[in-house]
Predict the 3D structure of the following.
Amino acid sequence: MTKKAVGRRQNSAPVVPQCFLSSSNPKEFGKKAANALKKALMLDFVGAHELARTGQTSLYFYTNPQFHAEIRDVNRPVLPLGAGQRWLHVAIDLNATGAKWRVNHISIGLLQGDAAGDKRMVMRAEWMMHKDEDHSGHGQPHWHVLAPELNELKDDFDAMVETTAGFEEFLSGEPDDAGSKSGQYPANAFDHFHYAMAADWHVAKPVGPGNILQDESAAIGWLQGCVGYIVHQLNHIDAKAGTSVAV
């Protein structure tokens, strides 16, 4: 019997708190983040909407005219990527620590869909800062690559059955014992896979995939750089496909 591989637990991110804001007002940080997004996306205007809760403020970013998408069952603003069907949903959670505020979580989601229609998130970049030591071993920052919706998979599968000779007969056969015990994951299982963005496994004494944002300036720099990289890669994809660039 084949043994299940067990990966070595990765080193945790250093003990924090980290990434305190230079101002005691989250609105000022929101303006800086909005300006970074404006530059990275080459938009005329980007604003920050605040959602305040006890001990926490969330920032969501928009432009004019405004566009929206359903994010976790809530209608949230999204930013256009060029004139196509690509969008960014950017959210930043700030936590109060005494009289100060610190960045707790940054999320940059890439969506596809019509301006006035449904938009589906296809991937997401995240950086989670922890108040206490992180024992999870997730890479910080990291990517999530999201599976298509089940109805999209069904449509693709039905089309394959119709156009592939002999495929329907193959499906009607009984699965063998090996196939029934293959341990295949459901389609959306890898939504939870954290693809480490900045690990140092290549150095002589690696610390691991856990990094920290030291301060507000580092957070703004990472936000602008990550969004700029997403734009760059979308342009690369479009160039390979012979279509118009994203921005």
About this structure: The first strand starts at residue 47 and ends at 53. Residues 175-181 have pLDDT under 50 and may be disordered. The two ends are 52 Å apart (CA to CA). The beta strands are 47-53, 56-62, 67-71, 74-80, 86-97, 100-113, 119-128, 142-145, 195-196.
